[in-house]
Design the sequence.
């Protein structure tokens, strides 16, 4: 066994990559909990609600009916029909069956698209902060992530000027996520149109849109998706969604997308040589999610809104922290740079966001994710997809830990 370890050689494509920092922090929190500490983890990117009963019932019925075999590569006819109806009903987008693909999670949708289209050196523009997987997938597929820094004072949204400046003759894709993980920022139609105008002048650039959190929006904010805002960009737009967040189905692993037929066909080639079809039972459950009752979505969104208000208020009440009010998703993304340069009681310097988050885990037994993991140092992500009582306790611990820091 030792000889095998000594001679193992990983592929160069993953040499600069590692396991997601979110998962690493989760593992450290789990280890600390196993050692007897009462750790609160605010790093989870999944709703704390259960999958609705009617969806679970559909899965059970599918199993009882023997729907446990391989399905069509890109999704069952029933699921594709449900996805097409969803896009039409909620987004005003029309897709034929051969313009839709269902995958084992939205992450695979993104991977399939990048693997099917990127050549070595092709560039992908990604506004930061961004979901950690975006840039890693681009690199695995031979592309070059081009990160565009979007701070809190611009609403964590990329401007048309920033996009224009980032485009080169090597640009292949632009990625947009609204509402955003990790910032909760969302693009209104008026924010999207200037970006689309830039892309209309750059015909070699395609647009990848991650709408996963579209049903988690607050204060009357209306979801907008680029292919509907301006249909001229639709022929080179891949619109991605899934059932994980809105329907609390993270473990069911169903993501989907609508886009040009040629792109979907190329993505299907990649999928055919990796996972083949998504789970047959999960597809049946996803049909029930998309076609069944939708009233609970608003109820759950209201619960998230109340938690958002609580978390943002408590964070802004802690000296040295500043938190913008997010439009959607279930994350807050506070600025912790006001604490840099302070010392812990043990004399450790809080020099950056990673040091601050490590200190919170050690001193407060609260696990959060540093903004550096999302491409924007100086911040940290708080998931409020947990109970009000847990959030109040966690924020109290954070406040106490910050109070123990001293000036140099």
Sequence:
């Amino acid at each position: 066994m030792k000889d095998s370890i000594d001679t193992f050689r990983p592929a160069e494509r993953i040499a600069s990559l590692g396991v997601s920092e979110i998962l690493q922090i989760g593992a450290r929190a789990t280890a600390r909990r196993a050692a007897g500490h009462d750790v609160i983890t605010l790093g989870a990117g999944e709703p704390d609600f259960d999958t609705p009963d009617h969806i679970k019932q559909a899965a059970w019925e599918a199993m009882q009916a023997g729907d446990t075999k391989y399905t069509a590569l890109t999704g069952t006819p029933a699921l594709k029909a449900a996805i097409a109806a969803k896009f039409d009903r909620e987004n005003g987008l029309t897709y034929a069956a051969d313009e839709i693909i269902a995958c084992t999670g939205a992450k695979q949708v993104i991977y399939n698209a990048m693997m099917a289209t990127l050549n070595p050196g092709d560039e992908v523009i990604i506004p930061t902060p961004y979901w950690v997987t975006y840039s890693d997938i681009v690199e695995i597929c031979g592309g070059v992530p081009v990160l565009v820094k979007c701070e809190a004072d611009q609403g964590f949204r990329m401007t048309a000027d920033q996009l224009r400046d980032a485009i080169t003759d090597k640009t292949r894709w632009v990625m947009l996520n609204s509402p955003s993980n990790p910032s909760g920022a969302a693009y209104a139609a008026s924010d999207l149109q200037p970006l689309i105008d830039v892309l209309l002048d750059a015909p070699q650039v395609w647009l990848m849109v991650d709408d996963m959190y579209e049903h988690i929006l607050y204060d009357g904010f209306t979801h907008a998706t680029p292919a509907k805002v301006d249909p001229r960009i639709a022929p080179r737009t891949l619109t991605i969604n899934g059932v994980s967040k809105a329907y609390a189905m993270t473990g069911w692993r169903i993501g989907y997308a609508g886009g040009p037929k040629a792109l979907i066909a190329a993505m299907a080639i990649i999928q055919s040589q990796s996972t083949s079809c998504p789970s047959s039972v999960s597809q049946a459950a996803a049909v029930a999610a998309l076609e069944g009752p939708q009233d609970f979505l608003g109820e759950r969104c209201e619960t998230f809104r109340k938690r958002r208000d609580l978390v943002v208020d408590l964070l802004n009440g802690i000296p040295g922290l500043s938190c913008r009010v997010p439009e959607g998703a279930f994350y807050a993304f506070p600025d912790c740079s006001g604490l840099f340069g302070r010392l812990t009681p043990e004399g450790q310097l809080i020099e950056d966001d990673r040091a601050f988050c490590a200190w919170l885990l050690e001193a407060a037994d609260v696990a959060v994710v540093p903004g550096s993991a999302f491409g924007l140092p100086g911040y940290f992500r708080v998931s409020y997809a947990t109970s009000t009582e847990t959030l109040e306790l966690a924020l109290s611990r954070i406040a106490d830990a910050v109070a123990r820091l001293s000036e140099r």
Remarks:
- The chain has two domains: 2-50+296-403, 67-291.
- DSSP finds 14 helices and twelve strands in the chain.
